[in-house]
Design brief:
The chain is α+β, with helices and mostly antiparallel strands and 160 residues long. It folds into two domains: 63 residues; 91 residues, Alpha-Beta Plaits (2-Layer Sandwich), CATH 3.30.70.260. Helices cover 57% and strands 18% of the residues. It has four helices and four strands; from the N terminus they run ααββαββα.
Length: 160
């Protein structure tokens, strides 16, 4: 019977030791360790609330920003690019317009994920037939031009 109680007490002490370590507590007695852990949890909850507010503000700013976001990263060894496109607005034919821009640069699409519901998102890996004079900047400018062209032709149709 005594052995079982000792095992439980040892297990409890081990768990308190872990709790003390996780919460960076300097307390020595069990009650203080638990109080420090409680304070640590409150601090974490405040951080979560603050981060959620920052995320909401950033998402709101993105929604208000009508400019498309285009990032282009060169893949290692000069084997193509990773292209990410986001626009809060979409227009008919935008995906086709972007893909035509890739084609004009000699950029083969090796893999792509696209969404055109409400906003426009495209993640593509392009490469293989890339001409030597095509770099990240050239790809980004071509994609932005394709978006502008599509938007302008879409607004012309709206006016008719």
């Amino acid at each position: 019977m005594m052995s079982r109680e000792r095992k439980k007490a040892a297990a409890l002490q081990e768990k308190l030791k872990i709790l003390r370590s996780i919460t960076h507590s300097h307390a020595m007695n069990n009650t203080s360790i638990i109080m420090d852990a409680s304070e640590y949890i409150k601090e974490l909850k405040q951080k979560v609330l603050r981060l959620n507010q920052e995320i909401a503000c950033a998402q709101n700013a993105l929604r208000q920003n009508s400019y498309p976001t285009v990032t282009v990263e060169a893949l290692g060894g000069g084997h193509g690019f990773l292209i990410n496109v986001f626009s809060d607005k979409t227009c008919p034919g935008l995906l086709v317009s972007v893909l035509e821009a890739f084609d004009e640069m000699g950029l083969s699409v090796l893999q792509a994920t696209a969404s055109c519901a409400g906003s426009f998102r495209l993640e593509a890996v392009g490469g293989e037939n890339v001409a030597e004079n095509v770099d990240e900047h050239v790809v980004k400018q071509a994609v932005l031009q394709a978006i502008r062209s599509c938007s302008e032709s879409g607004s012309e149709h709206d006016e008719e």
